[in-house]
Amino acid sequence: PSPPINPARGPLRGMMVFVAWLGGQFVAAVPLGFYAGATGADLDELLPWVYLLSGLGGVAGVYFGTRVFFGGIGAGSIPAQLGWRGTTWRSAFVASAVGCVWGLLWFATNAWVFPFEGEWPETPMTELMTSSWFGFYMWAALLVVFAPPTEELLFRGAMLYGFMQRWSAPTSVFLTTVIFVAL
User: pTM for this one?
Assistant: First the structure.
């Protein structure tokens, strides 16, 4: 069993997992910057790999941040530690699978049934989507595979649970939502 969380430190712990997520994304992508500098490779060609490593680094940051800042808990007790009472790994997997299938259906509908006919605005994500076949599939993986579980563990997991240690549920939900929307 993990030690009880000091209510005054709950929000800080939730935000530290957020920082671990950002740090995981940054640290995972930095080696490609060094590789591009050392070899003279075009960083635009490496863009899909940057996003892949950033996604993996973000997931690792949330996982390890949760373990460190919420009492060094083991992987098996993370759902219960974050306040997901009654949640099993099986039900979490089923919910994630349903979300991924829904995302794939949405993606397929928008990509092939009702494709966008206008001019895409230039953003890093549209650059990734239009860079190559690998970039296109990496863009889809980011939207369907990496983002949903990371967002759930980070926002509805660590941050919401940490905030609820100090503030009421409505206040905690409001603050978590504001941070998510701002991001």
Answer: 0.61
